[in-house]
């Protein structure tokens, strides 16, 4: 469904992505892990069209993303940003319904927003609150409701548990897994959190020195030597 083909990206003398090839099939949940500064965000930005790669292609349903094919892709993805990134000046429901309001009346968009808020465990009374009135966990849930508001085919999760305590992190991971399973959406998660990988992922890819050092099923990651080294470093840090 999404294929990353020989992606290269350098900033000046620094090579960040050095020939990344990676695919994710329809309905699959892929987690991309790696040390800080290994290029996970750069990879995500290349997929989203926010950073232009020096070489390589990204294919969506078999077609390379370019000026003609990208708009369709942009309408089909949802994203949970690190820190939720809600618009401060919009109410919770207006945040959730941000895209919907561009193509339907407010009453209908609000009804869908309230339904999505319920799916992430937030009651209708949260719809008219402002983001500043939400706790960190509630803001993350509202961000998740926004990510799924338009029934996306692909959902990106950027460090979904950052800033949450372990109990809230586990709840968000379980919620994400439930939503990904029930919607059949393809999921790409960027994370440091191995609990997220275990909860959310079907597959995991380790980014190291600009390349994919290991790519395989989550169920096999405990036996993978490159991952053992990464996990050892994580435990020491
Ligand atoms: N616009 C830019 N200009 C110059 N260097 C950049 C730019 N964007 C990213 N980099 C560099 O690319 C490297 C990878 O950055 P990136 O943010 O993708 O890392 P990351 O794996 O997402 O890290 P973290 O887990 O800490 O978020 C870093 O060395 C960073 O300084």
TrEMBL record:
<dbReference type="InterPro" id="IPR017871">
    <property type="entry name" value="ABC_transporter-like_CS"/>
</dbReference>
<feature type="domain" description="ABC transporter">
    <location>
        <begin position="2"/>
        <end position="234"/>
    </location>
</feature>
<dbReference type="GO" id="GO:0005524">
    <property type="term" value="F:ATP binding"/>
</dbReference>
<dbReference type="InterPro" id="IPR003593">
    <property type="entry name" value="AAA+_ATPase"/>
</dbReference>
<keyword id="KW-0813">Transport</keyword>
<dbReference type="InterPro" id="IPR027417">
    <property type="entry name" value="P-loop_NTPase"/>
</dbReference>
<protein>
    <submittedName>
        <fullName>ATP-binding cassette domain-containing protein</fullName>
    </submittedName>
</protein>
<dbReference type="Pfam" id="PF00005">
    <property type="entry name" value="ABC_tran"/>
</dbReference>
<keyword id="KW-0547">Nucleotide-binding</keyword>
<dbReference type="GO" id="GO:0016887">
    <property type="term" value="F:ATP hydrolysis activity"/>
</dbReference>
<keyword id="KW-0067">ATP-binding</keyword>
<dbReference type="InterPro" id="IPR003439">
    <property type="entry name" value="ABC_transporter-like_ATP-bd"/>
</dbReference>
